[in-house]
Structure formats: C-alpha cells, structure tokens
Amino acid sequence: MSQALASCVLGGKPVRVAPETEQRIHEAAVRLGYRPNLIARGLRGAPTGLLGAIVRDLSAPVANEICRHLMHKAPSHGFDVLLTDAADDPQTLLRLATLMKSRLCDGVFLVGELPGQDAIWDDYLAIGLPTILLLHNGQGLFPTFAIDEALAVRAMADHLVGLGHRRIAFVVANWMHGVHARFQAFRQALDELGVDVDDRQVIMVPPTRQGGADALGQLLTASNLPTAIVATTDLLALGVLAEAHHRAIPVPQFFSVTGFDDIPGAGDFPPGLTTMHQPVEAIAEAALSYFDSVEVSRLPSPPLKATLIVRGSTGPPRPDNEGRALPENHPGVRSLIRAANP
Predict the structure, then answer these.
(1) What are phi and psi for residue 93, nearest 5 degrees?
(2) Which CATH number among 3.40.50.800, 3.40.50.2300, 3.40.630.30, 3.30.565.10 corresponds to the domain 149-274+310-340?
(3) SS3 at position 65
(4) For residue 322, what pLDDT is reported?
(5) What is the pLDDT of residue 46?
(6) Average pLDDT for residues 136-151, to the nearest whole number?
(7) Which DSSP letter does residue 77 get?
(8) Band of the pLDDT at 226, cuts 50, 70, 90?
(9) What is residue 133's three-state secondary structure?
(10) CATH entry 3.30.360.10 includes domain 50-142+281-304
C-alpha cells in the first residue's frame, strides 16, 4: 500500500480505507516499533498533540491539583501535557515558553500568577504561543478559565453577615492581581449588605501559611478585634488557624475564619475550614476542550460556578459584636491571649 495511505491512517487523518487495511497498517506499526515523529509533524504544520503547562509554583496546592487533572484528562482530548515550574520568576516563564515553542507545542497553559508578570507580557506575546490562563488574571490578553468570583464572594459574604458578623477583617495575598480583585469584590458585596470594611483591618501578606499566621498576630494588636477573618486563599486561612491554635484562641467561638479554594486538607485541620470550592477538575476539562479548536485566542471563556463549603471554622459572633473594645475583665479574647502568652 502507499506511504501516503499509511501516513494518513497512523496520523489519524480522515481517509476512506477498508477496516481490514487500517488494521493491517496498525499491526505493521506495532510489529516494526513505529512511533510518529512529533517534531517532524510540527515542522509540516500539523498539530503535534503536545501542550505545555507552566506553573507559577508547583508547591501551591490548587495549582498542583489543576495540573494533575490536566495531565490525567489530556489523552482523552488527543493531547499530552509537558509540565514545568516557573518558580515565581517571570524570566523563567519566558524561557520555558520559548522552549515550548521550539518543541512545537500546540499551545500552553499558564497556571497561576507570577510576581512582576506585567512587565513581561509584551515579550511573552512576541513568542506567539496559543495560551490559556488558569487561576490567573491576565487583563483580557488570553482566554481565562476561572470561577465567577463575584457570585462566589457574594455567597461567602451572605454566609458571614447571615451569621451576624459586622466587624470583618481581611488577610490578602500582597501581589496577586486576582486575589486583590477578589478582595475588592468582597468589599463591594459587604457594602451592598450594609457592612463597612475597616482599612486598618486589611492585612497584606505573602501568599503563604506563614503570611496568614503573621497576619493574625497583627490583627490581635487592634483595640477593636474583628469577629470574622476572611483570608483570600486557603493557605492564608490555614496559617490563621494554625496561629490561633498556637495561641489557644478557639475558632469560631472568638472569631470565625474563612478561606478560598478548598485545597486538599482544608477540612482536616480542626475545626475544618469554611471555604469556597473551586471546581478545578471542571476547569481543566473546559480548558482542554478549548484547545480542540484552532481559534483558541478568539474563544470566549464563560466563568464556572464555585460552591460554598461550610465547616466548623464559622459560627455566630461573640457577644461583644456591638463594636465595643473588650474590657480588661472580659472572659474572652484578650484575657485568653494574656493567658496563652504570659
């Protein structure tokens, strides 16, 4: 049979061929140990079936989860995913994207924002890779797959205000555009519910558990303690919970704590973190489906729905919710802090 026919069958191209002939071609390929040369296919302009994934930091739990789903689901879409880690460095991102281009990847996922990334967008665009953003705020440069942040934030705000909280502090990752947008959505949602946000109780910290722990230490020095603490990521919230445990401050009896993402283990740390579940598996599936199309850069990216997961870290506010400073003899947070830190 002709080389062209064998090439079409093995390359998965539509061709009219008898089933018996197609089977003979595949059997011969197995017998000869034939493997398609993806680089050669790419040089001819054919899709290689390779997608790149460049992750901000593989140690970030939610990014790790979404990459796991991308790699597991990619073969069902006719792709394989090459996973790399930018280690929070924009120049490393550019180097890896150039590598993906030279290896003829059909496109790339950028998973998570990097510090200082705004300075390199022009250089990234010049590389010319079809790109999809995940867990990312890309200022509209590329299709972005994410949840409906405004809807998710409103559900969390409704939950806290419905419990009776009016003094709500925030722990915000200090350089992530998406997280800052999330905080602004919280501010707007609370304003619509008649709750003011005190800027003195908005703490900006690095997006780590230690950052959350440090933020709680700062909040405890306030003369008017909050009754609820909203952390804009689960890592920050788990840091708050760990520090509260270290100081023997009960949650949610003295303040409620919420997170965002529902990372693995969010429900394991007592009393279990109330958080917003991001459907990372659905996000990965939708993003892969978009790469089935040639016109990736022109496709819309409708938001997905997040789900409020209520666990033990939220409850009604303590009795001093009217906003008074706690008196010296109050059997609550201040005396508890003094007892835990003599």
Answers:
(1) -60, -45
(2) 3.40.50.2300
(3) helix
(4) 47
(5) 57
(6) 81
(7) G
(8) very high
(9) strand
(10) no
